[in-house]
């Protein structure tokens, strides 16, 4: 889920689209049912630290899809459409986490069925999915694969039309798990980091198996899905601490035990979203950090700052890499002449209400990069029951602090000079730095006299993410 997903999602939950048009498509005989032909890793690609994608094949078409955990449907919009399409003439509407240029909202597609395949070898011969009218994609993502818990909107529409025995409308994962009822039903996700700016090192998804490097996760505490009023992978957070001190954080939910918070873990969210009071409590502890009133809730932080943040789940500590707490950018002086490097808080404000099913916070990829995480659906094998997570810490706070400085120092060698946060705050206030500090913002000196821009406007134009 990216941005304000739940506003739309809660609407959808009340108004699932259904359509009683009869269809001519029949599932294949049981003997041709889903086959698990392989195990192994499906590589994931980090798109600018915002979304993770993988390539799937549906109805003979390879499609790059973003992964999401707040939704459960598979939808695709390949740029040239599908070569052929088994159309059920049923429609479904799902929340859309991609295509920010087109605005976030929902997408509606026609439900089709076809062969689904992963590069790891998993294959489902008869899988329902949504085929959405192609629209432009600025980032090469052409659909979403929802890794959430049932129910899916596709399955609801299929079962309304075909009866409750029709299983081909279930989510991809449910159909893969259904093939092997003796195995445990879980996926493992590793999102490792490559530098600071959204590279991919060894990110992958495994299904019903642990990667050999992460076998120890089997011994991690089981963190059960918590709260009957939430959707998605919500669990209890024991504590979030900065510099060894727990941040005071009363839950918005009456269900949460005293001192704990309900948070939703989601690969489809870029960073961590938490309430402003706790966000300020975290970033204000960093020496030298300042906030600015002109760009609401923007904390400016020394790029080299070592930030010791730890999230605790199931009694287990998960140190957060400093690079997952700040973002590096270039800011241009108000007269358009000089460029400076600026680091800002990358965790942002949580805007969901008490009744929107998310809990107190969203823990997205900037948390998940710090843990190998197993999402157990609780539907199979020896682990039938409530869904739960098992996580293995991946960040050592001592080595991460040194790594962050090394990565930032190397990166900043090729960037404009950094100013102290308070001086950057002055630039945001509209102060033109005296002298020729920074690096020239324009190559041609003839262009050096830029028109003056309004202060707030200057920031939205000038602060460009350095990716
Ligand atoms: C995924 O598919 C796209 C388009 O076909 C291709 O450019 C890309 O290299 C593929 N990625 C992987 C990891 O296979
Ligand atoms: C399903 O959606 C498609 C695309 O939006 C639309 O053309 C079609 O009329 C819809 N079908 C039904 C049965 O609502
Ligand atoms: C359509 O469905 C049939 C099974 O009924 C399947 O064999 C075929 O591959 C499907 N075609 C496409 C394009 O998905
Ligand atoms: C589902 O399958 C069971 C067992 O084959 C059968 O008894 C039942 O009538 C079926 N239900 C529907 C709605 O078709
Ligand atoms: C089914 O699960 C069991 C237990 O995890 C595993 O040993 C077996 O290889 C799985 N079968 C297939 C076909 O994946
Ligand atoms: C389930 O537990 C039993 C007893 O501990 C064990 O023998 C079996 O291998 C387990 N099965 C799976 C799929 O883990
Ligand atoms: C960051 O720290 C490194 C190591 O102490 C130092 O070499 C570098 O100059 C620092 N960068 C800034 C911008 O302070
Ligand atoms: C973190 O790394 C340091 C230095 O390599 C090591 O001494 C320490 O034991 C590690 N801590 C943990 C919790 O693994
Ligand atoms: C920027 O403006 C704010 C609000 O007026 C003020 O509190 C702050 O001191 C100013 N900072 C600088 C460096 O001018
Ligand atoms: C200065 O920074 C702006 C973004 O703020 C960027 O568009 C521009 O290319 C930079 N100028 C130089 C010479 O790097
Ligand atoms: C400035 O010039 C450098 C080197 O010639 C070039 O790489 C860069 O893209 C130019 N920047 C702008 C903003 O034109």
Automatic annotation (TrEMBL):
Residue ranges of domain Peptidase A1 in the record: 52-387
GO molecular function annotations of the record: aspartic-type endopeptidase activity
Segments forming a coiled coil: none
Span of the signal peptide: 1-20
InterPro entries registered for this protein in UniProt: Aspartic_peptidase_A1, Pepsin-like_dom, PEPTIDASE_A1, Peptidase_aspartic_dom_sf
Secreted among keywords: no
PROSITE patterns: PEPTIDASE_A1
Assigned keywords, A-Z: Signal
UniProt superkingdom: Eukaryota
Listed GO biological process terms: proteolysis
Key word Signal present: yes
Family: Belongs to the peptidase A1 family.
Identification of the protein by name: Aspartic peptidase domain-containing protein
Species per Swiss-Prot/TrEMBL record: Mycena maculata
